[in-house]
Design brief:
about 300 residues, mainly alpha, Serine Threonine Protein Phosphatase 5, Tetratricopeptide repeat, 15 helices
Length: about 300
């Protein structure tokens, strides 16, 4: 039997070890471009919350790479991150030109670099955090909505921001604008999975309450009946369905349909008593609504009796 030359075995072993070491050390990895290096440095400062340094590095990257490689996707990522830093520091006006650039960029750009989607979501979150600002709050919430719409017209968190915008509008008395925002959010929620249908019912009840405040009783009634029908199929006996019945009862009270209102209030209370933990606030509101409904019914009967010749 002929054995291999010991020198050949030794050479192969050494060569194999050398190659393995070079692989582990990244010798065969693709070389980092100037944009990669600059982005990594800016990212490091960003993660360390050294925002002044990160801001300078992102700006330098944008300026430099635009000249050498204007189509590099890292330019847009750097812009998005720079805008987030501005908003984080409540520099809304500084972020505005970048925001305009983003929403006018072809949405297909988000498919080139999956990380861009995460950066855009992070930026939208910072706009929410600025939502309580007395000067820029409302516009910040709108910017968040536009960004999420840009990312995905069916963004799972789009109804959340639409709801915040509607609530803000209601606080400032702009109920008609609030209806527009709530309608947008509800249109998205209608396509949610069954597990998330509860959010749809909550928002339909809130929208109905806005209609009620505007004395648009026909729209409120139509919406509530649709919501109750949906709730009875998927969430019968739950607290939110009870709330829908209470709100519908209020619509009937306002339109002098007192017997129908009474039926809705009783249905609501029956559903509430099935809960392990009763919503005492809703129970109290429903009982009070029943009492008001009964008073108005008796008053209406008395007035009719007095007007009979």
């Amino acid at each position: 039997m002929k054995y291999p030359d010991i020198r050949s075995v030794f050479f192969i072993a050494c060569f194999t070890g050398l190659i393995a070491g070079m692989i582990n050390n990244g010798a065969f990895a693709a070389p980092h471009s100037q944009a990669d290096t600059m982005f990594k440095e800016a990212d490091s400062a960003d993660i360390s919350q050294n925002y002044k340094d990160a801001q300078a590095k992102y700006l330098a990257l944008i300026k430099t790479i635009k000249q050498t490689d204007p189509k590099n996707p890292l330019i847009l990522r750097a812009q998005v991150r720079l805008a987030r830093i501005y908003i984080l520091q409540k520099q809304f006006d500084s972020a505005e030109p970048i925001f305009v650039t983003i929403v006018h960029t072809d949405p297909k750009a988000t498919t080139i670099d999956p990380e861009l989607m995460i950066d855009l979501d992070d930026l939208s979150d910072e706009y929410i955090n600025l939502g309580s600002d007395p000067h820029y709050g409302y516009e910040s919430l709108k910017h968040c909505a536009y960004l999420r719409q840009y990312i995905n017209p069916s963004h799972p968190h789009l109804p959340e921001i639409d709801r915040l915008l509607a609530q803000t509008c209601c606080r400032f008395g702009s109920k008609k604008e609030a209806i527009e925002w709530m309608t947008k959010g509800i249109d998205v929620e209608k396509h949610f999975s069954l597990q998330r249908q509860g959010l749809l019912l909550v928002d339909q009840n809130y929208l109905a309450s806005i209609y009620l405040a505007l004395e648009n009783y026909a729209s409120a009634e139509k919406l509530l009946k649709e919501a109750i029908d949906n709730g009875d199929k998927r969430a019968r006996g739950t607290a939110i369905v009870a709330h829908l019945h209470t709100t519908l009862g209020e619509v009937y009270t306002k339109t002098k349909r007192y017997d129908e209102a009474d039926k809705e209030y009783k249905t609501s209370l029956s559903a509430l008593h099935l809960q392990n933990k009763i919503d005492q606030a809703l129970k109290s509101a429903t009982v009070q609504a029943m009492q008001i409904n009964d008073q108005l019914r008796r008053k209406n009967k008395k007035n009719r009796h007095l007007t009979v010749p």
